[in-house]
Amino acid sequence: MQNVIIQACSEQDKEWLSHVHSGTRIDIQLLDQYDSRFQSELIGYRFGRYLIIRFDEFVIPQSMNCTGLIAVCRFLIEDSLGECFAFKSEIVNTLRRPDKLLFMAFPAEIHRRPLRATKRQSLKIPAAISLRSAQGTSPSFNGVLVDVSGKGCRFQFDASHTGRKVNLLPILIRIDWPERGIQKEVSGMVRNSKMQDGFLTIGVQFDEEQPDLDISL
């Protein structure tokens, strides 16, 4: 899939920023002698000037000064298509009080790459999910499919059942979609998970393609 490069401080910047909310998880790779890499959290920005990113103390030792280093940042935006964004930027300041913060120069350009070859339709379909194992399936959790295609879906449910993360494990999804006369079970694999708006959302790749779930057909 082809990358798209977005020039900074344009109307397109405002478009992608509209999808980036406080709390977005960002993977940061420092271009230092150790090629350090860690997860962080976007907490704000000033358009065209800087991004503010919170980090955990243990990922950057107290003795390490990151100011002036160049970092490669990557993050996912899950929408009807799903895209990976990446940019390179300089760390212009580092704070450790009252919180651990990196101030990064607003990126000069953004690299944007689709995560999936097929577009998914945004909707809400009642469904339930359970873990598959050699002993059978675990108790199920109710939720909704928030998008779906013939190759996969995103499933959203109350995170209080499982915590804030789901491991990459085989699962079984039971789908109840009366509008299309579909009531079926589909096996798949969890590929990613993230917290969003108080709910846990997981990305699922089906073991076999499901043409009847492909709304684009």
Automatic annotation (TrEMBL):
Residues 116-211 form the PilZ domain. It holds the Pfam family PilZ. InterPro entries: PilZ_domain, Split_barrel_FMN-bd. SUPFAM superfamilies: PilZ domain-like. This is PilZ domain-containing protein. It comes from Bowmanella yangjiangensis.
